[in-house]
Amino acid sequence: MLVSVVVCAFILVAVSLRLSSHWPVRRRALVAMTVLVLALLPFPYGLAPWVLSYLGDFSLTSGMLALLAILHRLRGHQFLSMGQTRMACLLLVFLALWFYPMSLGSSYEDPYAWGFGDLIFSCMLLLLGVVAWLSRAYASCIILVVAQLSYAWRLLPSDNLWDYLIDPWLVFWASGWLIRDRLLARRARQRLAVSQPEAASAAPVRTES
User: Fold this and answer.
1) Is the pLDDT of residue 74 over 60?
2) What's the rounded Cα separation, in Å, for the pair 85 and 177?
3) From 21, 41, 94, 194, which residue has the greatest number of CB atoms within 10 Å?
4) Residues 6+ apart with CB under 8 A from 122
């Protein structure tokens, strides 16, 4: 239960830093420290226990991504490139579209049962981690390793590996990120299309003598 509270606290801090992204770094650091302390207070005073009571437990993946977002907002280092983030969000959304309907009974095969120690499922995750490492997506590889080690040590209340890897709120975030990324790309193309005719009209016309 303590790890669940810490994961939730990281997510709350990441959200607060996103909302205060236009503030100076020192003020953002103060906001992050304040939210972290308030979130880690014991029930009924802490924010994290209340959030968990209404939304349920978050996955280790959500906590790790929130931690990377916190470091990015405070230190300015991008641990996941835009391409890696886009690919991870696409994988999460497609995985959710396959995983949740089948787990809810749309098929005789129940992928949620694989999370109770299925060897093939563990080998598939190991292979995915190796591919991420060879592709130099080190952050994604570390997230997979941390999630599986946390499952081995039963750091979350669940005894299913899926609950360490994915949660509905993570899928909602990935879907929102992809929508925002699409809108920003469209806006950038529109600005480029507007600026190109203006640049062409402003260019001096050279005449041959």
Assistant:
1) yes
2) 9
3) 41
4) 148, 161
